[in-house]
Every structure is written in structure tokens, then in C-alpha cells.
Amino acid sequence: MSDTGISTSKSSLRNKTRRRLGSKTIDTIYYAILAACALSVLAIIVGIFVELFSGSAASLHRYGFHFFTDKTWDPGSERFGALPFILGTLYSSAWALLIAVPISLLSAIFLSEMCPPRLYRPISFLVELLAAIPSVVYGLWGLFVLQPFLVKYVETPIAANGLLSKLPIFGDTPNGYDMLSASIILAIMIIPYITSVSRDILRNIPQAIREGSYALGANEWQTIWHAVLPYARSGFIGAVILGLGRALGETMAVTMVIGNSPRFTASLFNSGYTMSSVIANELAEASGLYRSALIEIGLTLFVVTLVVNIIAKLLVRYTAQNING
Q: DSSP letter at 284?
């Protein structure tokens, strides 16, 4: 080989080496940026926990575990117990799920399995539009439309009924500012989340599963019930838990209709309070130990939400393993 040929070959090798090194450097930078973005989520969660924990240190030191079992909330005597707010949050969220889950799942089944094509897009758009409405608008609607309707056509007739009025859940005088209004508002707010996620899960189930069921002689409902829904079970659980997380943390709409009374009873006609509502109402005027107690309620809500999401992940994994055998 001539000297010119050897020189050209060396130059080509150097260029390839530079390109390879340049590509490796770009990959390293790309990896670092993506890793930093992913780790920033963890950093945000840890930062929120540290800030809440440090802010509630005075209350934690003063009341300890008694903070979660005491039913008294009296800023004047510096006696703070979060039990009414914890129970109020869980109770209103549970009723919201009880109302929203059947409506959401049946709506998702209709949209994915039975809805005529010309209706699918309008109905799906309206369902997703519900999620985009600000919570304060829900609160105003609840205040001026839902509450008068409930008092006149639901709560007053129930209270006047000798049999129903003796049930513990209907044991108070109707006033509109109560758990029933808050639960219905929450249910309406979480329906689009559960419906949209469930609908997408059902539409992603392979068509071959439905065709196999029809080939065995099953009708439409048998196919949906026995072939389609079992595959979507884990996804449904995830969708419901997503809705529960939304209900637990909702603030403004609930604050406007729940009555904001720091005591808890099982009656749906009684006023109540949630963790997010008491923070929104009282934090601005709080200081010292009072402020620390409110921050501890925020820490409690954060931990409850975290635990709910962990349980959801475990349920989804357990259900998926059962389905896959």
C-alpha cells in the first residue's frame, strides 16, 4: 500500500473514532438529563415531606400520637386533635366512591363496547370536560343548585319519613351544608377520572378475546362479563384508586358545601370538615402551635395519600398476577 493510501486510512479511522466518541458523549449527556428529570420527582416528594415534617415538629412533640385520636379542635385553649378531620375526609371520600364507581364503570363499558360511533366522540368529550372544570365552579354549582335541590327533594322528605329518619345516616335536621352535598360533589368530580381510565383500559383489550367469546356462542353481555371485564380488573382498581386520591385531596368545592364543623357523626345530614378544608380555612390566621397543628394535618393527608397509592399499586400487581396465572 502506498504512503498516500496509508495516510487516508488513518485519517478515516480518526474521523470514525471522533464520531464514536462524540456520539458516546451525547448519549451520556442525554442519559444524565433524563435521569435528572426522573430523580427530580423523587426530590420533590422528599422535599415536600421534609418541609411538612419540620413545619409540624412543634405539634408532633406536643401531642404525639394523641393528635390522631383526640376529637377536640379548640385553637383558643391550644388543644388540637385531628380525628374529626381524618374521619370526615375518609367518610366523604367513601360515599363519593360508592356513588361514582358504578356510574363510571358502566359508562366506560358503554363507551368502549356498545356506544354507536357517532355518539362516542361527543360523550367522551363531555366526560373529559368534567375533569377540566375548576373546583370552585363545582363549589358554586353545589352551593346554588345542588344544595337547594337536595334539601327540598331529598333530605326533607327523608327526614319526614318515620322509618328512614331513624337510620343513623339520616339522623339530623336537613340544612344543605352537610356530608351528603360534599359526597355528591366529590362523586361528580371523580367520575371523569375513573371513566376515562377505565374506558381506555377496555379499548386496549385485544379484539381477539371478544371474537373468541363470540365464536363459542356467547352473546354480547356474556362476552363483556366473562371475557372482557376479567382482563380489565387490575386497571379498574387502579382507576378507582386514582379517583380516591382525587377525592381525598379535593379542597375548594368541599369547603364550600360541607359546613366546616369540627365534629364527626355518621349522619349524612350533618355538617363536617375534611383535612384539606380545615387547612384552607384556617392556615392564613394561624401562628405558632396552631399553625404547626395545621401543617401536621397536611402531613397526615400526604401520608394517607401515599399509603393509598402504595396499596393501589399492590392491588393492581396482585390482580394482574392472578389474571396471568
A: G
Q: Which of 242, 247, 249, 262 is nearest to 313 (CA)?
A: 242
- Whole-angstrom Cα distance, residue 69 to residue 153? 37
Query: What backbone torsions phi and psi does residue 72 show, to the nearest 5 degrees?
Result: -95, 130
Residue ranges of the chain with pLDDT lower than 70? Answer: 1-10, 18, 21, 319-325
Question: How many C-beta atoms surround the C-beta of residue 57 within 10 A?
Answer: 13
Predicted TM-score of the model (pTM): 0.82
Half-sphere exposure of 42 (CA within 13 A, CB side): 5
Question: From the CA atom positions of the chain, what is the Rg in Å?
Answer: 27
**What gap in Å lies between CA 78 and CA 267, rounded to an integer?**
28
Complete DSSP assignment for 51-102 = HHHHHTHHHHHHHGGGGGT---EEGGGTEE--HHHHHHHHHHHHHHHHHHHH
pLDDT tens readout for residues 91-131: 999 999 999 999 999 999 999 888 888 888 889 889 888 88
As given in the structure block, the three cell numbers for residue 32 are: 444524565
For residues 109 and 200, the answer to whether their CB atoms sit within 8 Å is no
Helix 275-282 vs helix 288-323: crossing angle, to nearest 10: 150
Measured between alpha carbons, how far is 276 from 86 in angstroms, rounded to an integer? 10
Q: Is there a contact between 271 and 261 (Cβ–Cβ < 8 Å)? A: yes
Residue in this structure with the C-alpha cell 335536621, named with its chain if needed: 173
**Are 309 and 242 a contacting pair, CB within 8 Å?**
no
